Amino acid sequence: MMISIDIEYLYIVPAIRRLVAEEFLSKGLTQKDIAKKMGFTPAAVNQYLKKKRATKVRFSKEEEQIIKEHMDSLLKGESSMKMLIRKVIKEFEQKGIVCRIHKSIEKTSCDCLEGIANENSRNRC
Q1: Buried b (16+ CB within 10 A) or exposed e, 39-64
Q2: Is 115 helix (H, G, I), strand (E, B) or coil?
Q3: H helical segments located in the chain
Q4: How many CB atoms are closer than 10 A to CB 125?
Q5: Is 80 helix (H, G, I), strand (E, B) or coil?
Q6: Which residues make Cβ contacts (< 8 Å) with residue 3, sequence separation at least 6?
Q7: pLDDT per residue over 40-74, tens digit each?
Q8: Residues 6+ positions from 91 with CB-CB distance below 8 Å
Q9: At 67, is the secondary structure helix, strand, or coil?
Q10: Between 31-38 and 42-49, two packed helices, what is the crossing angle to 10 degrees?
Q11: Is 28 left (phi over 0), alpha (psi -120 to 50) or beta?
């Protein structure tokens, strides 16, 4: 059984990257520009955009909105992809989203405390 940090690293972070790449493309950025802003190679960005990476997790509209709210600072060069991911993951943990995604990936008797920001709840999955 995986713990929440495994779910974050293996599934949620790549899905965040995919969504960010897709959003930047929709704003008219080239794959080369997207790669530069995200700190990845153009080939990696291409794989996210062609859905060859990060296809297991689908975000709800609310979850997508959380990610999009943090993207402006990345687009303006005021933040890094690492900072964006840290902020989004923290918010996902606080709202119980990590647990929801964990349950969708792995059959588990996860006893996360939905919506409660509690350090102990982080590793209960």
Answers
A1: ebeeebbbbbbeeebbeebebeeebe
A2: coil
A3: 4-7, 13-26, 31-38, 42-49, 61-75, 81-94, 97-105
A4: 23
A5: coil
A6: 123, 125
A7: 999 999 999 999 999 899 999 999 999 999 998 99
A8: 66, 97
A9: helix
A10: 110
A11: left
Task: Look up the pTM and report it.
Answer: 0.84
- d(CA 111, CA 19) in angstroms, rounded, equals 28
Nearest-angstrom CA–CA distance, 52 and 112:
30
CA-CA distance, 95 to 117, in Å (whole number)?
7
In this structure, the dihedral spanned by the alpha carbons of residues 68, 72, 73 and 75, taken in order and rounded to 10 degrees, is 110
Predicted confidence (pLDDT) per residue in 16-44, tens digit: 999 999 999 999 999 999 999 999 999 99
**Position of tokens 């996360």?**
112
Cβ–Cβ contacts within 10 Å for residue 78, how many?
9
Q: Which residue is associated with the tokens 């303006």?
A: 76
Integer Cα distance of 29 and 35 in angstroms: 10
